[in-house]
Amino acid sequence: MPHRLYDAEGNVTKDRPWIFRTYAGHSSAAASNALYRKNLAAGQTGLSVAFDLPTQTGYSSDHPLALPEVGKVGVPINTIDDMHQLFEGIPLAEMNTSMTINATAMWLLALYIGVARERGEDVRKLQGTTQNDIIKEYLARGTYIFPPEASLRLIAEMYEYCLDNLPKWNASNICSYHLQEAGATPVQELAFALANAIGVLDTIRERRVVPADRFPEIVGRISFFVNSGIRFIEEMCKMRAFVELWDEITRERYGVQDPKQRLFRYGVQVNSLGLTEQQPENNAWRILIEALGVTLSRKARCRALQLPAWNEALSLPRPWDQQWSLRLQQILAYETDLLEYPDLFDGSVVIESKVEELKREAREEIARIEAMGGIRAAVESGYLKSQLVRSMSERVSKINSGELVIVGVNRWTDGLPSPLTTGEDGGIFRVDEAETRRTLESLAAVKAKRDQAQVAAALAALEAAAREGRNMMEPSIACALARVTTGEWADTLRRVFGEYRPPTGVEGQRLFVDSDRVADVRRRAEEFVRRTGHRPRIVVGKPGLDGHSNGAEVIAVAARHCGFDVVYSGIRLTPEEIVQSAIEEAADVIGLSILSGSHLDLTRQVIDGLRAAGAGDAIPVIVGGIIPKDDHEALRALGARQIFTPADFDLADVMSRIMDVVEEQAGVRAR
User: Fold this and answer.
1) Distance between CA atoms of 200 and 375, rounded to whole angstroms?
2) Which one is catalytic: 23, 112, 500, 568?
3) Active-site residue, from 359, 542, 561, 599
């Protein structure tokens, strides 16, 4: 937000640019450090760190669950030595660092502080954000570990610690971004995020650790991370509604008097949900339009922006792809006159009417959540998750019916091959397996040389603090300095708090698609029942540590809608658990959903597990996810019977192809 719009003479002041970020991290700490330094040299003004799934879910890289995922969607961080390497040559006290980390946020902040201490940097000057929004993890992203009560305690303790020790640090970041990615409407994004922020602040206030006269400082450190979709007028109105509602909540609910502490401070990544595998060059224009929704309105302009790359429906972006996205921001901020004027929309009847409509509906939804007992109760009851699954099902239904037009997907589908994908690498980033080996070797070396007695003492102190209700930040920092690993830190807290599995939100949902092709799949399902004596049964499995569950949930809903019995147990299952479920449930097909790039390893483990269990090839396996075409043949060689990617948006066609596999396996043809 701008500090002021006019100078002493009444002249309009130029707004300062937002922080330019790209979301980055891959392969290893050394490789990621090289990328960061190149991006900073290219004009990036802040860092946004992507961590790999083992780091996010509290496993060291050498854990069996972690091995297929090391370095695939972010940087692996096992110990403080990895953190030193990640930020080598980057002064922490001069950098604004955003870390996309949630369940293990306290640990990663402890490592960051540990690096600063060992370097001799002033810890109080550290500025940035740990995402640390566990609520959206239960609803959308899936990298949770601990139950809600323990998770909220970890967040509260970080705020309490940072108040005096890291006064410029945002201990958490309320993330509506992931809610929109999971299908949230603008009203749901507003209401769920604001109810989430209320839940965090109420938790901190009820703990009575922070003196009442300093509580407004806590309110002033709340920041948000939002999404901006393709409907940029509606998105811009949503942002104005966010600003006004947050000012209202902080003033009326928490009695904050200082306007600066009531500011809605937010960063953005624009929408990735709408990026397409088909005609991927169109994504560049989508990203530009989505950026306008959070930059056009000066009163609701973002203070940090990171843009996805054109090829993120295909794979992780390459360095050139990230540079292209960064250049878009720089052109918008420095070549145009966008920053030179006051708010362009003040006084617009159309804008004011839409903002008031969004605010009214968001207040009503927040009131419903409050009536349930607040955000934690709404999560534990499954209400919020079911609402998101319903919204996503409605969106997918509209795409399938053509009511929601996606250029190149369900309209104007004929196009010339994209020159962006014709290079030697096909426009796709691939992780260097040698970097994974180096990560594992580095971890083994740290374990071999560290003081084991110091490690044991640090972990014991952490466990004692957790059990006794004392703040866990300093014990975590002590663990970091002792070279404790990510898995050891998380396992210690798992013993105290346990692990959590939230509701899937799939029960009771339906698709809003009733075409002739859907009717044909239903007819075939009924014929299958008549011929075999049971409904076609699909086990929808999410193996590995990836928590992006939208695709799995939509397939589960679609399969039930088409007459299948569906077994879906949620995310982060081991291949062994999926195999056991398929055998116990007498499944006719297993559908694997994998978006982390680990499709070859995880598919192999499931198929090998079926054979080891004596099921042989009796239960066919199909695979869906972000799967490069170059990997399709390898998956088929492993035994995958069908492969689906984001290009397969037509659910009637998907279910028909799944039914083909089921009928062929059973020797039953309904046609």
Assistant:
1) 9
2) 23
3) 542
